[in-house]
Amino acid sequence: xxxxxxxxxxxxxxxxxxxxxxxxxxxxxxxxxxxxxxxxxxxxxxxxxxxxxxxxxxxxxxxxxxxxxxxxxxxxxxxxxxxx
Length: 84
Prior knowledge:
The chain has a single domain (about 5-80), classed as 2-Layer Sandwich (Alpha-Beta Plaits), CATH 3.30.70.1150. Helices cover about 25% and strands about 40% of the residues.
């Protein structure tokens, strides 16, 4: 199956959303290459980046699930590197 590289940018505006967010990311751990989280205490938010190598439908599924969590904003960016 062809896979693509994608970066999911996540902004968490309420800490109550973190357990749900972590549970969803854990479901997709086999596709996650790396993850970096930055708490920004001054603004009371967290900024997370997740890099994946996965089929398009898996990336879309994860993006959709994360986007439905209240107080979580996400944006997905796909690499232009040809699929393998």
